[in-house]
Amino acid sequence: MKEYLIKNIGMLATPLGNLAKSGSDMDKIKIVKNACVGVKDGEIVYVGDLENAPKFESYIDAGGKLVTPGLVDAHTHLVFGGWRQHELEAKLRGATYLDILKAGGGILSTVESTRAESEDELLQKAVILVDEMLEYGTTTCEVKSGYGLNYETEAKQLRVINKINKNSKMEVVPTFMGAHAIPREFKDNKQGYIDLLINEILPKIKENFDVEYCDIFCESGVFNPEETKIILNRAKQLGFKIKMHGDEIDPIGGADLAGELNTISAEHLIMSTDEGIKAMADGDTIAVLLPCTSFYLDKSYARARKMIEEGVPVAISTDFNPGSSPNSNLQLAINLATLKYKMTPQEVLTAVTLNPACVIEKADKIGTIEVGKQADIVLWNAPDLNYICYKYGTNLVNTVIKCGEII
Length: 407
Ligand code: IZC
Ligand code: ZN
Prior knowledge:
Elements: E1 3-14, E2 30-40, E3 43-48, E4 58-61, E5 66-69, E6 71-73, H1 88-92, H2 97-102, H3 107-116, H4 119-135, E7 138-144, H5 151-167, E8 171-179, H6 190-208, E9 213-216, H7 225-237, E10 241-246, H8 254-260, E11 265-268, H9 274-282, E12 286-289, H10 291-297, H11 304-309, E13 314-316, H12 330-339, H13 345-352, H14 354-359, E14 377-380, H15 385-390, E15 397-402, E16 405-406
Parallel strand pairs: 1-4, 1-5, 6-7, 7-8, 8-9, 9-10, 10-11, 11-12, 12-13
Antiparallel strand pairs: 1-2, 2-3, 5-14, 14-15, 15-16
């Protein structure tokens, strides 16, 4: 079907524009009852009522359903070897995420499995995972490397991330995250790994890969703010755009540093202080909040309301990874954002469509349903927006459209 009109849409709900929304603007979305959306050659060409719609070759009857933009997941670690279910018992006996990492497990266990698996094995698994995400309404996602921690395996992961685009309908944006942990071979020589990153791995990755973003795990026992600053400044000097994980477990100044460095985004922010939040607002940094991780680590929830009040644009993503968020379903993040962050359904929709599209700098093409944008659209088994925030535990997606193609 090259062109069609989706008619009989019960409720069309979409943010508008190409810029990240903050403050009260997050709540201002377009809601139209009995709407139609026209698609031609993968693009949205009409949004309006049936009476004024031009003629299309074919029609899809939405049957009174809710229609939104395709969901955008701006934070995942979905290319990895193995899983981490073997850590569940230690977790139940009280071991924390950082205890497990310190003992050589956690991220380092996934590094071992990722180094051991072939490129084909990693790709096959990743394609199954992204195809599942598409079924749950995510049409674009970011994927971080960071389970190699040496040039060879980081490069293997980035090749897999890039190949996903050709092997699935999912649109994937890569981020380099070689500063995800200190590899076992540098256990007693963190500075040695930082030097290797700065002098060899970062320049070689920039030279050989089309990867625009560089991320780092700024956390107790991983990279402190001083080290983070050195690594991110070097990345910036090499031409990367920078982002960071901050304040996930301990409040060590992650948000403050993100604001100071004007990073595109800062991610997690569970423990961010008032000053940190203000610094992000001043630094035009988007907050990527990950409620599924708070749930899974049994932690508190990031202070989304405070961030919105202070004018920080908020995006919500899954953090899909085999350790702290073995869940790729953004619908669960939608439910948790409503219930735990106390965000309105309108704010939540902005946070899973337009704002994450801005985090990956694709909002000129995706994140809203407007004429001229790519036709990434979800039809929901739901009559309105409140319903998908309120009902949980089953897949509420009816139909996913990616670049105009019905999947
Ligand atoms: O594999 O544990 N937080 N990095 C930082 C992660 C979670 C992924 C992991
Ligand atoms: Zn992460």
